Amino acid sequence: MAGVVGRLARRWCSGALSSPLQVTRFPTLQLHLCGPAMTASQKDFENAMNQVKLLKKDPGNEVKLNLYALYKQATEGPCNVPKPGVLDFINKAKWDAWNALGSLPKDNARQNYVDLVSSLSASSESPSQVTPAADRKQPGGDALVVTSQDGITTITLNRPDKKNALTTQMYHDIMLALEAASKDDSAITVLTGNGDYYCSGNDLTNFTDVPPGAVEEKARSGAVLLRDFVDCFIDFPKPLVAVVNGPAVGISVTILGLFDIVYATDRATFHTPFSHLGQSPEGCSSYTFPKIMGSSKATEMLVFGKKLTAREACTQGLVTEVFPDSTFQKEVWVRLKAYSKLPPNAMRISKQVIRNREKEKLHAINAEESSILQERWLSDECMNAIVNFLSRKAKL
Ligand code: COA
Q1: Checking CA distances to 325, which of 59, 80, 359, 391 falls within 20 to 30 Å?
Q2: Is ligand 1 within 6 A of the CB of residue 200?
Q3: CATH code of 356's domain
Q4: Do the Cβ atoms of 251 and 282 come closer than 8 Å?
Q5: What protein family does this chain belong to (predicted)?
């Protein structure tokens, strides 16, 4: 994991520096050299590397050089590579930045890196409306970003180009992230999306590339994955909050019934077009939705695919509160930071008292929904809907 994060950070730095450079001064660095006791842990460092990827604004070449130099110093120690030639401007600037750190100990470099990222993050409004760095557009690269700060672990869907559609890998990664969050020292866990969408549901290309004769097996393994995925939400032990930053489709909507709080921007919509896709409800929505909004409203959504506005979803109890888009991020994070300071054990136990009564039932419903879907995925109705989407004949 650390290696992956490191590679990504390196890519970010070198990628960002491919534009012309104008800077060779490093005031931030010098400020930190004589700072107080150095304490950043490896985990803080990795978190900071993840935060860098979510910065809203480009911090500029000077800061990028500082980040690069501190990263190299923290991971490899003092500059130990030959100086690039004078005409190799970019690599020379990077080398100069690293070399300027002299014999700064690795621990201090790590601390300075964390401090610098923290100051950049503080001036950046929030992680969820970030314009992605160019390298994050690569498929599979950083499709999920996990950060931990102020007692809140945030899992961010990060495929804005694909409206944060969930690939098979992302299902696995979200499960791992939830497992880690259940054990870390955060009080609250948040799921949100980067870009204009919260999530466009299952990535419909998950159904493609199936070799002839393997369709049944693909449907079977898909149902197992779905069941395991939803089980993680049923069993998650801490308060789980959805910060719905834009439209939500399919499974990203159905599992909302398993969250403890759902905050939405007024730009969000909630859409479960299962019949249009020849599919059937999942995420325990066949049970949670009728319970939350009554059976006829649930039927409108789950059977007829009625798309709700954020305000409608709030009136029907699926969404806890709706905020104007212009203040959404600010208001929600202020609120969550306040909640995260409440005694964590009390919050966890209270959540479990509420959830435990229903757990067994939810697991049974999840198993049933997954097995019904396994059949639906093999139906002509479903195949045709996916082919139509992929051949651009149909959009929601
Ligand atoms: N699966 C796979 N790819 C998806 C996707 C999904 N669920 N949702 C969006 N994308 C891709 C699009 O194919 C497009 O890719 P491209 O740029 O390579 O062509 C990209 O994301 C942007 O989407 P686009 O359709 O151009 O944006 P839009 O704003 O016009 O429409 C949606 C957004 C979500 C309404 C539309 O993409 C859609 O209908 N997606 C399918 C949603 C769905 O059926 N989900 C499953 C529910 S169970």
Answers
A1: 59
A2: yes
A3: 3.90.226.10
A4: yes
A5: In the C-terminal section; belongs to the enoyl-CoA hydratase/isomerase family.
